[in-house]
């Protein structure tokens, strides 16, 4: 791996996460994947190790320093090397917390961020059955009623759904205004009228809970609204600008983990009287995988650092980081199975899971087609400014 | 620190990270080259227990102590990363070559200075496997000892109730404090280091004491103060495979076994 000149704090975060990955995640990943077990115990270990605070400022109980997004990326990557499903408890919680960090007032931050920093799980809810890529077409409504809002509707495919305590939920406060009529609310598990529906049975990231959220006349105090009424869509877009390098890191971790396993296996597996890694055809495959992984890492780190430095509109690079890394993850994980040969196709070995887990990173937090739209749009805007 | 708060001292040892200890046949000493050092695994349980006592009481201090070369600093920092508050390294040429008697005397001298309410240690170290140093400390100080502790039921200034693992069951002891307790792995599950713990460990000041600092009699420490003379250390030959007794039933197998024992005149 290249030298990226991480700070001392970041090196310690990586070391801490690596130890959790090796000692707490690797021993349970196959079982949790098979049984779709939510990794409450691992998430507690992550919280006990202070890692749930790495993207939260010190004044709210975290330890982000000046590099919250880079920290989030580093920890996500390290955990994902062991399991892209279990690591999602951490990454999904970060996604659910970002709206509070980016659009919350001081009082709201005081109310929720210290909880997240100390290990309370959060979730993010925007997707609906008829509002996927076209998020602005959502049907969930929030109608003002005195000092409250009454929320009705449902959300689909919500990561950490049912498991999280804190939810950043998007709803239409004014349907006539389209995207400008969307607002973001913080809901807490147990609020009357806030229920959980179907839990998805998925191809990959099976240790992660993906569940439907149902709102029936759910009364939420106006004090739980993040930012002004109508600013929800902006909050969502800003959140994605910050979170997409994180999805990229999850993909990167999956790719790097798969590559490591492939190299290890190729060195010990003998055919024709020598380790299969002695074959140039296989060496070149591994070299291509390594190049892709390193390029993804460089792009993600550069983007995360740029965001942490205060970038105003990192949308393009952020989309690139997510899109590129997830395409790399899919390719590298599939090639890793090829290196393993027949056994790689069985569940006896961990490698097939890497490919199943990789697939989702090309789909969620904006499909890679949507990412390419964002990248193209950024190109056009930049050209138009000249 | 308030008079009423508990001062917990944990004695640890840095050992080579290997289950296959190799011996240099010429020098009769352990081969340590190329072997990574770790905290003796049994001592990790002692550290964890010390930290848990402090957390349970909501106050107190955990000081970790080791006698060793300057590199043992790493073991002490690791202990801080999992929750110890302070660390003392007993380090001097004069301590070198100590057997269990001289080692426990050196640690006992440190205890006179640290004035702990309770001393915790692992039941034994995985390199020497003597299980003598912990109890030795209490003997030098004339303090009570409880070995193979699997649970600390109660602890407060002046006394503790502990469960000790025996071969046939558990023994519950009331112990007057200060005392030395050596622990077994059943007592807890040590935590992993936290990020903040690692940062604290990196920045921590490790206190270093030599023989003068602990007022140790130079005649009673190190090689000079060690009554044990190692004659020879060797790797015992591997035992051969043995014989499998096969029979229709367990009872028949037992009969054949008894006959063999009689034949060999073992019993």
What does this structure look like?
- The complex is a heterodimer of chains A (386) and B (267).
- By secondary structure, chain A is α+β, with helices and mostly antiparallel strands.
- Chain A has three domains: 8-121, Butyryl-Coa Dehydrogenase, subunit A, domain 1 (Orthogonal Bundle); 123-230, Beta Barrel (Butyryl-CoA Dehydrogenase, subunit A, domain 2); 233-385, Butyryl-CoA Dehydrogenase, subunit A, domain 3 (Up-down Bundle), CATH 1.20.140.10.
- Helices cover 51% and strands 15% of the residues of chain A.
- Chain A is built from eleven helices and ten strands.
- Chain A has helices at residues 8-25, 29-35, 40-48, 68-82, 87-103, 106-117, 232-268, 280-308, 315-340, 351-360, 368-385, and strands at residues 122-125, 141-145, 148-159, 166-172, 182-188, 194-199, 210-221, 225-226, 270-271, 274-275.
- In chain A, strands 1-4-5-8 form a four-stranded mixed beta sheet. A four-stranded antiparallel beta sheet of chain A has the order 2-3-7-6, with helices on one face.
- In chain A, helix 4 (68-82) packs antiparallel against helix 8 and helix 9 packs antiparallel against helix 11 (368-385).
- Chain A is globular and about 80 Å long.
- The model of chain B has no long low-confidence stretch (mean pLDDT 90).
- Chain B has six helices and 13 strands.
- Chain B folds into two domains: 7-220, 3-Layer(aba) Sandwich (Rossmann fold); 237-267.
- Chain B is an alpha/beta fold.
- The longest helix of chain B is centred in the N-terminal third of the chain and has 17 residues, at 41-57.
- Chain B has a nine-stranded mixed beta sheet with strand order 11-10-9-12-8-1-6-7-13, with helices on both faces.
- At the A-B interface, helix 1 of A face helix 5 of B.
